[in-house]
Amino acid sequence: MEEAVFRLGPRRLEQYERDGFLVLEDFVEASACDALRRRASAMVEAFDPAGSFSIFSTREQTRRSDRYFLESGDQIRFFFEENAFLEDGSLRQKKEHSINKIGHALHDLDEVFDRFSRTEKLAQLVSDLGVRRPLLIQSMYIFKQPRVGGEVTCHQDSTFLYTEPMSVTGLWFALEDATRENGCLWAIPGGYHLGLRKRFVRDKEGGTHFEIYDSSEWPLESLVPLEVKKGTLIVLNGLLPHLSYANRSEKSRHAFTLHVIDGDCRYPEENWLQRSSSMPARGF
Predict the structure, then answer these.
(1) Total domains in the fold of the chain
(2) If residue 39 lies in a helix (H) or strand (E), which one and from where to where?
(3) Residues with Cβ within 8 Å of residue 265, at least 6 apart in sequence
(4) Residue 272 covered by a domain
(5) Has residue 282 been placed in a domain?
(6) How sure is the predictor about 53, in pLDDT bands with cuts at 50, 70 and 90?
(7) Which residues pair with 271 in a beta bridge?
(8) Using CA atoms, how far apart are residues 136 and 116, in angstroms rounded to an integer?
(9) Is 66 exposed, middle or buried (0-12, 13-18, 19+ CB in 10 A)?
(10) Is residue 156 in a domain?
(11) What mean pLDDT comes out for the span 16-43?
(12) Least crowded by CB within 10 Å, which of 70, 176, 200, 229?
């Protein structure tokens, strides 16, 4: 039986306009989730941590912005958890339990991730959201490791993937059940109306800094947990404030994220994530 054409419909579009996010259950098959997990596992197994690597941190983002990170926009690179290392520099636990994420061009450089990322269903979803010329600008495989999975502080995706006018949309796929215990997403419904608080930009001399537009605290008392089952897609407006707490449970919380921008909008050269002219961002 041929699969029905996916459309968001007026009710979901109204919900997205109200809240700035959508939770779409059973958007992808369990087998597709498992295929990504197997591929990520194989990639980590082949990764040699003796070479160059970075530690991922949302609390010390500018200090952690080394060359390995800044040149990852059109590469596949590995980033460790903050708490992965002992004082002597050795790993607390096995390599496969110490990686925070893989980024940021999986969707362009790996066949398995490319196949998952470029489907008619996703293309239709993004079209329904009003993105006229979608470009897949970034992808990340996020492990949220048991016991050491770090907190991702409250942020907006437009801080990091800014366009004029703002257009970034986040597509967050649950590859495992995401609960409060293992670090599910939390979001502030309607919080995208608060406007852009800051931008993460490259320094001309090297490194990065934040341009602050509004230093007021987020209304964290308004956060709601987005506990979802494996195969769920969460769509995030680029201005939506969201976070995830540390995972201190015994269960991982694997997820895959795609970020889409509108190619009709300007993507500034001072954005941290840049791609070489030989590998420009492509659509679906």
Answers:
(1) 1
(2) helix 30-46
(3) 163, 164, 165, 166, 167
(4) no
(5) no
(6) low
(7) 201
(8) 12
(9) middle
(10) yes
(11) 98
(12) 229
Tokens of 224: 């709601």
252-264 pLDDT tens trace: 999 999 999 999 9
pLDDT digits (tens, 9 = 90+) for 186-231: 999 999 999 999 999 999 888 899 999 999 999 999 999 999 999 9
CATH number for the domain including 47? 2.60.120.620
| CA gap 178, 156 in Å, rounded | 20
CA–CA distance from 243 to each of 83, 130, 225 (Å)?
18, 25, 10
Q: Examine the pLDDT at 62 and tell me if it is beyond 70.
A: no
Q: Identify the sign of the CA torsion 138, 144, 150, 153.
A: positive
Helix (H) or strand (E) holding 134: strand 134-142
**Cα–Cα nearest to 284, from 263, 254, 266:** 263
Identify whether 244 is part of a domain: yes
Peptide bond into 49 cis (omega under 30): no
> What domain range is 28 assigned to?
9-262
CA distances in angstroms from 196 to 68, 147, 191, 229, listed in the order given: 27, 32, 10, 30
Q: Is 0.90 surpassed by the pTM of this model?
A: yes
Alpha-carbon distance of 279 to 281, in angstroms, equals 7
